[in-house]
Amino acid sequence: MIRTSIARTLTPLLALALLGSAAPAMADKYYKWVDDNGVTHYGTAPPEDGGSEAVRTYGPSSDQGKEIKALQEQREAAARAREQAEERAREAERAAEEPEAVAKERCEEHRANLEILENKPVVRVENPQTGEMEVIDQARRDEMIETTRAALENC
């Protein structure tokens, strides 16, 4: 019974150690050559007499870092999209439950936004696709002021 639990513990550890020791070998440069008897050999060191060729081993891709970064950016964008969708769903649910309170809050937000748009020299907004803050130009500022004033007419 004790031997069985030891074997269960040591077997995965041994397998992990073997895999770990094989990883550095995959990074070595290998050579291929044919000897005088016509036998093909492979090794990490070429023969002294030359006549060998380097063999490509399948290690990590040279653009693996770029691929990992792109995948991470896709995951972050998907997470942001999920969070935004959940937030919109919560807002819609709350608007259905408490319409007057939500309307009052939105009017207050519109007034605060209009104050910022009209009085601050530089206004930044979050880009929904990248999540980064961007400075808006005068044309967009004017458009936002017009839209905000129109929303305030309903308050």
From TrEMBL:
Question: What organism is this sequence from?
Answer: Alloalcanivorax venustensis ISO4
Which keywords belong to this entry? Signal
What ranges does the record give for the region Disordered, renumbered to this chain? 42-105
UniProt-recorded name of the protein: DUF4124 domain-containing protein
Domain DUF4124, by residue range, is 17-85
Please name the Pfam families in this protein's record.
Answer: DUF4124
Which InterPro entries does this one have? Answer: DUF4124
Q: Where is the composition biased (Basic and acidic residues)?
A: 64-105
- As given in the record, the signal peptide range reads 1-27
